[in-house]
Amino acid sequence: MMRRIYLFLGVAIGVMCCNPFHSHGQKGRLQVVSPMADSSTVDRAVVYLRGKADPQGMLFLNGTPLPVHSTGVFAAPLDLREGANEWEVWHVMGTDTLRKRIVVVYEKPLPPKPTEGFAIEYIRIAPGGDLWLQPGDLLQVEMKATPGMAATFYQGIPLFEADTAVAKVGGIYRGEYRIQPSDSLTGQTISFYLLDSVSKKTVMMESRERITVLNQPYVLTGLTTSNGVPLYYGLGTDRLGGAKMGTLDSLVRLEITGKMHDMYRVRLSTADQAYVPADRLAVQRGVHFRPHSLTGSWTVYSDSTADFVSIGLDERLPYVATVQQHPTRIVVDIYGAVSNSNWMTQKEGLLAIRNVWYEQRSKDVFRAVIELNEPQLWGYDIRYRGRNLVIRVKPQPAVLSLRQLTVAVDAGHGGSNRGAVGMTGVLEKDLNLSMARKLKDALEKAGANVIMTREGDEAVNNGERLRRLQEQDPDLLISIHCNASANPMVQGVSTYYRHQAYRPLSQYILTEMRKLDLADFGNVGGFNFTLNSPTSFPSVLVEVAFLSNPADEERLLDNGFHEAVAGKIVAGLRGFLNGVQGRAR
Predict the structure, then answer these.
(1) Long-range contacts of 344-350 (CB under 8 A, 24+ apart)
(2) Over the stretch 306-343, which tens digit does the pLDDT of each residue have?
(3) Which of 39, 226, 422, 513 is the Cys-Cys partner for 493 at CB 3.0 to 4.6 Å?
(4) Separation CA 275–CA 311 (nearest Å)
């Protein structure tokens, strides 16, 4: 059996505040953490040598010098050829040499094997999980079984064996079936059959998934159960969750057209659909009409802190907002709404809004357009007040100076949530807090009012941080983290934004951070991080450097570097504010 090794982001060996090797004698002089065993077998062409050595000595890999940082950490890629690969690591101090032999056997992954005997190995129904489907939906299935046979599913629907060159193995059978109005499945499994036409033997397997066909003569509806219910474009996901169209208030009524995994599929309009977590949508009992409303009159006004656009509706309908630039506009599509707005009252004293108007984009999509006075958007929120959809728009600060701004500073992780761990044992949560405190001091010295999401080593989940931030409504948010990778050679600084209108803030800060001679890992947009998600204020996530990289970790352990990071972020904020002034109309 193949035995594999796995690379770790970090191993706690003790924080490096001094040279730890002198007290450990010969054995402490050289520690190889990865590969974890002297001899191992892997199925990939590159592994990484990682470890610690006394920095007062010299380190060699097969006779080639290998840098050791002042922290004692070292790393290097090991390129593998098929079969056995051997390295020798030497650590030399004066006339004394320690040697460690490492053997890594690279075995390419074996190709998949055909199903043995006469059997069905597995069946899969896309997209997986119990399904609610409507007539017209496609049921897509795959079965792995004995090659060269006849195969069917459901009501004798044929399955076809895929080309072995494409499927990489024989016996992969695939098929599709479009749900018909006559189908009456209610939480039922689907049967799959494999037939040997020579011996006339048949084998059958039932799906784990259960299928329900929504063929009732009326629409199925549900109500959102809380504020901040996410609308997803599709079922795709990653460690940060799926891509979101936006979020909805509570008691918004949605038409349910299906269920996949733990998500309801909802109809927004004739041409648009989305997905909502099943635990955030309560199915309504009985017969309900499709969500629909005529729009009423508009009022556009200011309360001296922000501007508001209020649109009357008959019920709470789903909506999605986007921001257009050049000129800057907030565009809100209200699904299921039809225009009956015969007047729009715009009052004097507006701070942020230049003009408003609407378009009936299609028979069931009403678009509200809010044009702003300034090119830079400073934040907006959308909420229902009763059955009125209200868009709150924040004005540009009267004075573009840090002395007039409230800046929120977020130290990532905390408490039991340690974040990444460096090879020296240093914890990301501690580095984040140190840099956040330095940034707080630098901002306050510049005259800014500062809000901290955490002051000490406490666990605060991102949902709670977001709730507090939205209550406090800062002008800007800076979230500080350290990056990490399974590849210890990856390094550099990066900044992240979610909304295009807030990209300039992230660009200015990245430009300043690069002046610290950090590698450029990039400016990343559309990032699905919780604290980048609010539209209420411009925000940026700063991943200062890679804690998994020896050179970056060495800098992250330097308190003076923390001071420099704070200074560069403040410089980036000033650059952003100057840039906003330069773009003013």
Answers:
(1) 344/297, 344/298, 344/299, 344/300, 345/297, 345/298, 345/299, 345/300, 346/300, 347/299, 347/300, 347/301, 347/302, 349/301, 349/302, 349/304, 350/300, 350/301, 350/302, 350/307
(2) 999 999 999 999 999 999 999 999 999 999 999 999 99
(3) 513
(4) 25
